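Ligand: calcium ion. Inputs:
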Amino acid sequence: KVELFPNGRGVGQKIFKTAGFVKPFQEAEQVCAQAGGQLPSPRSEAENHALQQLVEIENKGPGYLSMTDFWKEGWFTYPDRKPLVYSKWGPGEPNNSKGREDCVEIKTNGKWNDVPCGEKLLVICEF
Ligand code: GN1
Ligand code: CA
Ligand code: CA
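Predicted complex:
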């Protein structure tokens, strides 16, 4: 067993690790890809909770998830364009506020909100 505390979490076969800095979505994607991973796609309460813990620990505001509704407004998918198998939207979300929210953040309370992809948010990668 590998000790990942305090900046990483292992859940099943997955490892989540914070980069410790904020970036817009596209750059965040690149950071994770370059590291051999991807942005996080939480598929269960356990995975979401691990990500929530990392967001809380870093204390730099919400973090990016991998999912977008780039391809069809209001229809969020993973990067492979498959539909969500799990979600944890906050009340009233996703709302596509101001008509331009196609990315997803995970907040300190673990809930999801759609946001503009230009927002600079905490980078967490999934491996
Ligand atoms: C924020 O700033 P405002 O209230 O227009 C948020 C939206 C949320 C909304 C919930 C950039 O929008 O995504 O849906 O609060 N915008 C940003 O009330 O985080
Ligand atoms: Ca949208
Ligand atoms: Ca929103």
